[in-house]
Structure formats: structure tokens, C-alpha cells
Design goal:
Chain A: One of its GO terms (cellular component) is proteasome core complex, alpha-subunit complex. Chain A: Belongs to the peptidase T1A family. The complex is a heterodimer. Helix content of chain A is about 35%, strand content about 25%. Chain A is of the alpha+beta class. Chain A has one domain: 4-Layer Sandwich (Glutamine Phosphoribosylpyrophosphate, subunit 1, domain 1), CATH 3.60.20.10. A 5-stranded antiparallel β-sheet of chain A has the order 8-1-2-9-10. Chain A has a 5-stranded antiparallel β-sheet with strand order 3-4-5-6-7. The longest helix of chain A is centred in the middle third of the chain and has 21 residues. In chain B, strand 6 and strand 7 form a beta hairpin. The longest helix of chain B is centred in the middle third of the chain and has 22 residues. Chain B is globular and about 70 Å long. Chain B has a single domain, classed as 4-Layer Sandwich (Glutamine Phosphoribosylpyrophosphate, subunit 1, domain 1), CATH 3.60.20.10. The chains are: A alpha+beta, B alpha+beta.
Amino acid sequence: MSTPFYVSPEQLMKDRAEFARKGIARGRPVLVLSCADGILLLAENPSSSLHKIAEVYDRIGFAAVGKYNEFEGLRQAGVRYADLRGYSYDRGDVSARGLANAYAQTLAGVFTTEQKPFEVDLIVAELGAAPEDDRLFRISFDGSVSHERGHVALGAGADAIAKRLADVDVTALGLSEALRRGREAMGLAADTAIEAAVLDRATDFHRTFRRLEGDA
Amino acid sequence: MSGFGPAFLTSTSTSFFDLVSSLRPEALPATPGTPQSLPPEGTTVLAFRTADGVLMAGDRRATAGHHIASRRIEKVHRADATSVIGIAGTAGLALELIRLFQVELEHYEKIEGTPLSLEGRANRLAAMLRSNLGLALQGLAVVPLFAGLGARSARDPSPVGRIFSFDVTGGKYEEVDHHAIGSGAGPARSALKRLWHEGLDTETGVRIALEALTDAADDDAATGGPDIVRGIAPLIRAVGPDGEQRVPEDEVLAAASALADVQMRGEATP
């Protein structure tokens, strides 16, 4: 019988984190920013049907980078969680905080116990009555959660995008201006295929998520 | 709290009804045993095709035996952006079934990224009714009427107004131009047969719907006509190319008083 090699827990975690980080860094970037008209979700995405941003509930949006099959499964789990909760209690009782928590626990569980960690980073965004009430949660592959204000970017060059928006007061921008500044910060050429959607602060319907077709 | 349960992550179903049935069956509309006293019932919902879609109207009365349980119950609801659902039968179960159906459609749309076809929505509704058959046999029947804009077939994708009726066993029947359900359905159907014609606009549609409901209220004690004194108007929803919209209550009330004026003078309605 052969003795398995000893690997220290520190090394194990480090290897896993490095593996996940590599996968995520290859992903094209996603940017979520809260502006005066709502929360804008932007993604560089050559496909018009494999979405990286999506609706989870009335006022909650989802954005992800990384492996499609993994974040798609997580997105569907989020929709199931939100719909079941909203049906059992009330539509107003579904919050991004609860959802972010569930994502964090799931990702942390997979990161520590499974063979391979998820190669995904997620954003859960909840629309408030005003931009300062918006909640943007960033959930990393290892389950760590951070509460961001104004804007949050994921994927390749996320830090650079955040830096470019650092001294812009995004919460004062209208939708079209926010879209322009967002594209600029992501460094996208005019003909780059993007996916854009908004959680609309002004709509009368309970479902606020709307895809921006023919993304200007 | 430990994240999503395994069912959330591994499920391959797009149906919310299946999800609730497996994870939280107690949240589904159900009543163990037959209740001692009569539960409130809702009556008379009608729907017909118009020039650019469909229109559905329902009276606002719920009865429990000879007693009026509610004057303001809402029996016609938005199902999703392009369809409406109306319900006659045991009110408590009916309202829960509508809520479940609304989430079912929204859930599919979010999971799949595209709305269910109109025929598909009608089939889901039929399946949900079938699962309620036990309740129906106890006397707690729920009978919906479903209408919306949808393609007739894959070869002809232009959307047209379509109406589906159901029975308690989950049978689904497509109606041609108009239909009415509930205890006042007889008089309402006769009125629709007489008044309905091709190419109705919403305004004329509202008038015809009011006339049919007034006829139903005349002959059926469980149906309430427009109540101008209290300002309670039948609930009317129209689906057109711009989506589903409720006809504002003050517009319906104005049309109802105009109709009452004509009837008071003993003139023939236009």
C-alpha cells in the first residue's frame, strides 16, 4: 500500500484558489453599476443567447463570470430559491442579502469539500428606492462576500475597470450616460458585442428587470 | 443555514409547481377533508376575441350559500405579459391557484430565458387542475378561463387572440370566439352570441362585456352587476399588441352608467 503524499492545508487552499482564479481571469468582464435610473448590468458577451446577466426576482439581478455551466446552475438555483421564498411568504420578503448568503454558503462548501472549486465570481444586485439604497454583493469562488457601493466589476481587468470609475459619481448618471461611461470604463470598441440589462427604478410593474435590446 | 439544498442545484425541471410539490407540498392549495360550512364561491367570468387580442371580464361578487361573502373580489388576473386568467368556483382555492400559476409562468420564463407558448401555458394550467382532482370531487371545484395572445402554429407565427376553457378533471378546450364560465354563464353566453362580432375595439368590447354581465346578474343571484351606487365595477382586462392591461375602473363605471341610462330609457342598446 502506498502512503499518500502529505499536503498542508495552506498549500491545498492556495492551489485551489489559484486554480479558480486562473479560470475566472480568462473570463470577459462584467460590470454592474447603480445609477439614477436603476441598476445597469453590462457584460462583454459575443453570444446573444448564453447570458451572463439575468433576472432572479422582482428587484434582484444576477451577473457572473467564469465557467458557463457552473454559473448557469447557480443562477437557476437562485431563481428556485427566490420563487419558492416569494411564494411561501410574500414577494417583498425576497432579499439579495438572503440570496447572497445562500450563494456564499454553497460556494464555500464546494471550495473546501469538493474535488474542484467552482470557477465563478458572482454579483447579486438589489434595486432600492434610490441609488443609495441599492445593494451590490460580490461573491467570490471561495464564498467570500463583499458589499460594494456604486459599481462592481468582475473578470479580466476588473481592477482596471474599477479604477477608471473610481472618481466618477455613477449614482448621479442617467441610464444612457451610465451605459456610455460603463462601456468606456470596460474599454470596449463601438462594435464589440455586449449584453446589457437594467433593473428599472421607474417601472410600474413588480418585475423591474429589462434587457436592453440592440444595446446602444 | 448552509446554502442551497441539493434539489435547488440538481433539479432539471422548469416547473415551479413540481418544485413546490417536492420541496414544500404544504404550501400548495389544498384542504384536508370537506369544510363544515360553505366556502365562498366566485361566479361569471367571460372572454372574447377583439380586433387586436382578447378581452376578459368578471363580476365582483363572491357568495357563500345565500350570503354575499364579498362585493369586491377580483376574479380576473394577469397571468403574464400576454395572457389573463379568470376563475369561477371555490374562491380561496381559486385565488391560490392563480397565484401558483402566475409564479409557474414567471419561473419558466426566468429559468429558460424565454416565455412559454400560449398552448404550453394552457397545458400547464390543465395539469395543475388535474392534480387538484381530489379537491374537485370533494365539491371544492375550481374552473378557470384562460386567454391570451399566441401563435396558432409554428408555421404561422403571427399572434392572435385565443381562449381556452377547462373542466375540473383538467380537460382543456379551445373556444372559437367567445366563452363564459360560472353560474351566470348561460345568460352571459346568450348575450355574447347576440352582441359579439368580428373586429371589436376595446371600447365596444367593454360595453358588450358589461351588457353580458348585466344579463347574467339579472338572472343569477350569485353574480353581481355593476354597482354604480358603491362605485364597484366589473374587472376587465384586455390583451393587445402592447401587452396585458387592466381597463381603468372609472372608465368601466362610466360605460356602466351610460349603459344603465340607455336601459332606463327603454331604448335598444347600440
